[in-house]
Write a structure and sequence with these properties.
Elements (H helix, E strand, L loop, with lengths): L2 H18 L7 H21 L2 H4 L1 H19 L3 H94 L4 E12 L5 E12 L28
Antiparallel strand pairs: 1-2
Length: about 230
């Protein structure tokens, strides 16, 4: 409903109502016609502003009272015509007042809906910002965890390499020593036997090979060659 049209209709109806209050010397017939005209203006205002669609019973009742007022005036029942016309105008006023009340309530509800919509939009924006901040914090935590895991993995690889180097050093076999012992025996006239032993040592180095399983302990082989010479 257009508020300006409603106000204009109310002003016009009020002007006609004031016109009904004619001087006392005016005739009753004229007063009845003026009352009927004022009621007609109010009813038309109610119909123009859409009050008839909102409250059809009240507007229809006002229209019926106006028709009776005209009949009373036609039948020269001037007092009844005036009274009925005034009643018709009162019904139209009530309908207009109710329509204006509904209009104001609808306008207030519309304004409140706009305020609620703005508040809801602000709340949603704030919630979205909070969720975005939480997501960024989770992403930062994930990156930090990944960095820590990478550092730990690097430390583990370094420790494994150090352990492997130590194990390889322990797995190298010790040098093997081959010893040749030469024994000479010399016989004297007194049948004495002299033993002379010459010891020669030869060191053989074998290249250590890296194996998955612990190597067998290094062995040392000693070859002893004994030569006995007997002289008489």
């Amino acid at each position: 409903m257009n508020k300006s049209r409603l106000v204009a209709s109310l002003l016009a109806a009020s002007a006609l109502s004031i016109a009904v209050a004619t001087p006392a010397h005016a005739g009753k017939a004229d007063r009845a016609r003026q009352a009927i005209a004022a009621a007609e203006a109010k009813i038309q205002a109610a119909e123009t502003t859409g009050t008839a669609a909102d409250m059809p019973r009240r507007v229809a009742a006002a229209r019926a009272e106006l028709a009776r007022a005209r009949e009373d005036l036609s039948a020269r029942r001037k007092d009844e015509a005036i009274e009925t016309a005034i009643h018709a105008g009162a019904l139209a006023d009530a309908a207009l007042g109710e329509a204006r009340k509904h209009h104001d309530e609808a306008l207030a509800a519309e304004q409140q809906a706009k305020v609620d919509a703005v508040a809801s939009a602000r709340q949603q924006t704030s919630q979205a910002q909070i969720e975005l901040s939480e997501a960024n914090a989770r992403a930062a935590n994930a990156q930090q965890s990944a960095a820590n895991s990478a550092v730990q993995a690097a430390d583990a690889r370094a420790m494994a390499a150090s352990s492997a180097a130590q194990a390889a050093a322990l797995q190298q076999p010790s040098p093997q020593v081959e010893t040749t012992v030469t024994t000479q025996q010399t016989a004297t006239p007194a049948r004495k036997t002299t033993h002379r032993t010459v010891v020669r040592k030869r060191v053989i180095h074998r290249k250590a090979t890296r194996r998955a399983a612990p190597p067998a302990p290094a062995t040392s082989s000693t070859t002893t060659t004994v030569t006995t010479v007997t002289t008489r």
